[in-house]
Amino acid sequence: MIAFVWILLLCGVCRTSIAQSPYAFCRPELIHYTRQTYNAYHQNWGVAQHRQTRFLYFANSKGLLEFDGSSWRTYELPGKQKVRSVAIDEQGRVYTGALGEFGYWSPGPLGELVYHSLADRVKEKSFRNEEIWNILVTSQGILFQSFAFIYRYQKGQVQLLQPPGNILFVHQAHDKLLLEVLDKGLYELKGDRYKLITGSEFLGRETINTILPLGDNELLIGTERAIYRYDGNLFRPFNEQLNAFIQQNRLNRGLVVGPDLYAFGTLLNGVLLTNAAGQIRYHFSQKNGLQNSTVLAMCQDAEGNLWVGLDKGIDLINLNSPIRYFSDNEGDLGTLYDMAQYADNLYLGTNQGVYYKPLVRNDEPFRLISGTQGQVWDLAVIDGELLCGHNKGTFKIQGSQAQLLNSITGGWVLHRLNRHPDLLIQGTYTKLCIYQKNSQGRWTFSHTVDGFSAPVRQLEEDADGTIWVNKAPNQGLQRLRLSADLRRVEATKEYSDADFHGPAVNLCRIQQHIVVTSEKGLLAYDASSDRFISAQSVYPWLGATARKLFPVSDAELFLLRQDGTLSWTRQGTSPVGDIPVKTNEWVEEYENIVPLDTNYIAICRENGFALLPRKELAQLVGGAVRRPVIRSVSVVDGPASNYIFQGPAPLLSFSHRQANLFITFSTPYYTRPAKYSYWLENNMETWSPYLSIHQKEFSNLPPGQYKLHLKSNLNAEESTLAFEIRPPWYWTAWSKIVYLFLMGGLLKLFYQLHLRRVAVQQNRIREKLEEKLRHQEEQSQREIILLQKEQLEQGLIQKSEELANSTMSLIQKNELLVKLKDELDRVKARSGNKLSGEDFQRINTLIEANISTDQDWKLFEANFNKVHEQFLKHLIENYPDLSQGDLKLAAYLRMNLSTKEIAQLLNITHRSVELKRYRLRKKLDIEGDINLSEFMIKY
To answer: Which GO terms describe its molecular function (predicted)?
Structure first.
């Protein structure tokens, strides 16, 4: 019978080995959460997941930790005790246990978790010194367990279930409640009674830390030193290799994580993942990735991933993802640049050389191939041969041996020529090299291409056989046309503008087009116009930007984005989605994705590689992910208010002084990074671009109704948050009605005032018009008067001039009469007494009577003043000593009369006139060089 069992076990091992992947040495991804990340203490004693919200809860030495996928919160117990255990029931109530304390947490009025203690219902005084190490949610109620007591909480009542001795943990498996009673064995708890399981007495001397279901009826019972298999009758050792490991490393926790997958956590050496037969599939420890090797708690989440609470931190083992990783945690291999699968070996090309390991022996480490020490750039399997482009030249790798084919340094890239499938072309530090097959069908170096000398980092051949090269470092693109014998360059064209320089430029061929990444986005070469155009016009499914493109087959393409995220698509369709790989572990400027075989694709990383199964790529970029959750809303710079949501958010209302809101959100999916897009109704016109954020602040929101729409790149379904910013009290509906009436009254008052103002304005305008008309009339009257005055003055002046002229005529007449008198006197004297004296006397009297007198002068003076504006009057005012004769002389001089004319008017001699002029000059005090007549004219 025993021999038969061993045969079955061996057959199982063989089947497992045959079915096992050649890359079984690659392990699931590890995601670390340090105490700096969750901002609490190192030790995490328990883990549980909320079924409804999918949030994770951890029993931490500082308190209860809550993780929603983006942010962490810590809830401390009222007594600041260490939280030793945590469990969540079907309704989502979170139970915790601590020193002398147990109870539950439920959302408070603002959404934050509020603690409700149940310890006051315990009557035993010694309970205050007991720690609740285990909480179990059962159909019989919630069990809180210390090492001395078991309390059952059911229907609001706490009941003591007195065990039959000192106990360890209560376990639930196959609907049974099992616990160890020290020194007695394994018991089953049924209702309020304990029943010893026959044959388990030997377990009372060990420490049972886990009991797990095995198949439909059996149990796995794990102690600190071994795991036993119990079929209901017999206890047998489970797996010799597994038990040997546990014997050395002390089992502490166990968990079923799949139909054929078990997790065992140890105190000394991390986590083991085994199949149902106990064969170890993965081992995680501090040496190969865990933060700490002491496992205190384990929990499987809704996606099938394993959460591990450690003595130092929290780790997540991503079992749900088909991606597996190989990590060189010790740094023995160096930075990985390329890799290849060849002849049942896996080869890694690093900056330290070429390493290999047989794929049929997963436990063997990678070994360095002698002679390949140094920088490896390229590994290529072509026609059954593995060729290596190396800093020292080009090697052919066979098994663990390397043979130098070409000593030209820097074999960067090697391609088969499409038009010459029996030839290879290689870009190196300095030359283009050609390889051909020898007579044995082996690749050998042939020659270099003349007419070209430059470092070639990337090389492609287009449909016309033209060679495109991307020169390093950052020297731009060049197009080469080779001669028919491929020995020289016949024509070349440089693409030296800024678009084709820099580390952002990468060259590849997609279908029939040469495509280049650049600072301006993706560019495709258009042969018809001999220029580069936007690649979106040729391949719209590529998107706008990419850091690098990797066509791994005619149907599949990977796109490395600028932020390090990786997308996968089938050529000719839209990108399906992002591949969930870490974005910060690429080899900068030398990113590489390698098709290993028909089943796997590898991604080179700084310290290893990621392994992608081809058949599960659609699952990687798809899958059901919950829509994002709006987690909290808090007020910034205003009356404090903070709301935390465990589910859908209610309508929120804020005052006008709380117009700056800070909103956080998350996606309770823990193995794929989420990007978010949001749109706030009544504040934003369109959706924001997808961003790697989990919070957003909206500032200075005016009063009104708002609705935040949120979606993620993992789920297009929206989450919404409706809220309002209330207006101030002076801008409510009632105040607006009051303001409306006041406004109506004011409008009416303003209208009345306006009418009054219009009337006043009209009166003012009318008065102004009347005043203006009056002024215009007065002005007209003044103008008429002035005109009449001018006319009168002109007439008067004209008449005065006429009178002056007549006076002058009279004076001239006097002059004539005087002359006649003189002539008559001479005639009388000559005639003697011949004529009668009476006749002469009568004629003389007649002449005397007609000669002008003083009256004639006064008339002349009056007329003269009218003409010359009272000249004489002003002259007398300024020179009162002037005599009448002086005035006459001044008047005659004013009229610009000559001395002769003045003498005749004055009836004096010329000499007398000169003498009068002299006297007048003295009286007027006029200098001798001034003309007296001109002085009078200007006076």
So the answer is: DNA binding
Over residues 277-332, the pLDDT tens digits come to 999 999 999 998 899 999 999 999 999 999 999 999 999 999 999 999 999 988 89
Q: What is the DSSP letter of 587?
A: -
| Residue 638 CB-density burial (10 A; 0-12 exposed, 13-18 middle, 19+ buried) | middle
Q: Please, which residues have CB within 8 angstroms of residue 614's CB and are 6 or more apart in sequence?
A: 556, 598, 599, 600, 601
Task: Looking at the structure, tell me whether residues 590 and 606 fall in a common domain.
Answer: yes
Considering Cα of 807, then 808, then 809, then 812, what sign does the dihedral take?
positive
Does 133 fall in a domain?
no
Instruction: Based on the fold, state whether residues 477 and 617 are members of the same structural domain.
Output: yes
- 540-577 pLDDT per residue, tens: 777 667 889 999 888 888 999 888 889 888 876 666 67
Neighbours of 715 (CB within 10 A): 17
Instruction: Tally Cβ neighbours within 10 Å of residue 494.
Output: 12
As a whole-number percent, the residues of the chain with pLDDT over 70 amount to: 91
pLDDT in tens, 748-803: 888 888 899 889 888 888 888 888 888 888 888 888 888 877 777 676 567 656 65
Q: Which residue bears the tokens 């957003």?
A: 696
Length of the chain: 939
Give every CB contact of residue 711 below 8 A, 6+ residues apart in sequence.
627, 628, 676, 677, 678, 717, 718, 719
Confidence of residue 874 (pLDDT cuts 50, 70, 90): confident
3-class secondary structure for 8-43? HHHHHHHHHHHHCCCCCCCECEEEEECHHHHCCCCC
Question: What pairs with residue 213 in β-bridges?
Answer: 219
Tell me: cis bond preceding 628? Omega within 30 of 0 counts.
Answer: no
How large is the average pLDDT for residues 496-509?
81
pLDDT at res. 245: 96
170 neighbors 184 (Cβ within 8 angstroms) = no
CATH code of the domain covering residue 486: 2.130.10.10
Degrees (nearest 5) of the Cα angle 262, 209, 54?
Answer: 55
Q: Check pLDDT > 70 for residue 373.
A: yes
3-state secondary structure of 750: helix
- Report the alpha-carbon distance of residue 201 to residue 225 in Å, rounded: 16
Nearest to 111 by CA among 629, 628, 656, 626: 629
Give yes or no: residues 683 and 597 share one domain: no
Residue ranges making up the domain that contains 406: 336-495+554-621
Q: Count the domains in the chain.
A: 3
Paired sense of beta strands 280-284 and 208-214, if any: unpaired
CA 159-160-165 angle, to 5 degrees, is: 160
What does R_g of the chain's alpha carbons equal in angstroms? 60
Pairing of strands 367-368, 208-214: unpaired
The 3-class SS string of 449-515 reads CECCCCCEEEEEECCCCCEEEEECCCCEEEEEEECCCCCEEEEEEEECCHHHCCCCCEEEEECCEEE
Strand partners, 237: 228
Helix axes 854-867, 733-831, angle to 10 degrees: 150
Based on the domain organization, do 590 and 659 belong to the same domain? no
CA distances from 429 to 1, 351, 574, 649, 866 (A): 69, 16, 38, 62, 122
3-state secondary structure 264-303: EEECCCCEEEECCCCCEEEEECHHHCCCCCCEEEEEECCC
- Tell me phi and psi for residue 674, to 5 degrees: -105, 145
How far, in Å, CA of 828 to CA of 409, rounded?
162
Per-residue tokens: 49: 């997941």
Instruction: State the amino acid at position 572 in one-letter form.
Output: G
Residues 6 or more apart whose Cβ sits within 8 Å of residue 924: 879, 935
The mean of the pLDDT values for the chain is: 88
Percent of the chain at pLDDT exceeding 90:
57
Asked if residue 413 belongs to a domain, the reply is yes
Question: Average of pLDDT values for 173-201?
Answer: 92
Residue 214 counted as domain residue: no
Nearest 5°: CA angle at 429, between 427 and 430? 85
